[in-house]
Specification:
Gyrase A, domain 2, 2 domains, 4-stranded antiparallel sheet
């Protein structure tokens, strides 16, 4: 019983941190990263389609992203989607190839991005703590219903705290790495 609650809580924590890491990958730094455009949805023949399903996304240089569209009809839709995504990049279309030059970040913009990273880190930590709180409530309910012993409940809560610490540390490391990447000139 308590193991099921722990497993479920750990799975939710893991998913929260994975979502945070994806969010960090999509955050713009001064360097080109396919993560900046991977998640952009493109209106392709009336269906919202992820950009990565419409072409090959590469970073041939540190400050350039290229998207090689597989269908010439998708080029205009991709260009519109990039402009609508408001990521601060202007697409240059050359036949089936779309180039996205990455401008250098100003010091002010770098500081804004770091603040955003810290805000998202705090949100990720809160999500993990909320999972812990829900799991503790579930464990206490199991103990109250006499489905697990008080010792099992305390052991499970200790294990739950270890999971919480592990995942908050993982989020902190991802945040620190992104902050270092943003502040690197």
């Amino acid at each position: 019983m308590s193991q099921d609650a722990l497993r479920k809580a750990e799975d939710k924590m893991k998913k929260s941190i994975e979502a945070f890491e994806r969010d960090m990958a999509g955050m713009r730094t001064g360097r080109a990263s396919p993560g900046l455009v991977d998640g952009i949805m493109v209106d392709y023949y009336g269906a919202m389609t992820p950009m990565k399903q419409l072409g090959t996304i590469n970073t041939p240089e540190a400050r350039l992203i290229t998207i090689q569209a597989w269908d010439k009809n998708a080029v205009v839709a991709i260009e519109k989607a990039i402009q609508k995504a408001n990521i601060g990049l202007t697409p240059n279309v050359d036949g089936m190839l779309i180039r996205l030059p990455i401008p250098a970040l100003t010091e002010e913009r770098r500081k804004e991005i770091v603040k955003l990273v810290h805000r998202r880190l705090e949100e990720a930590k809160i999500a993990v703590r909320n999972v812990r709180r829900d799991a503790i409530e579930e464990l206490r309910a199991l103990e109250k219903d006499k489905r697990i012993s008080q010792d099992d409940q305390k052991r499970a809560e200790t294990q739950l705290q270890k999971h919480t610490d592990t995942y908050t540390d993982k989020a902190q490391k991802a945040s620190d790495a992104k902050e270092a990447e943003v502040m690197r000139v």
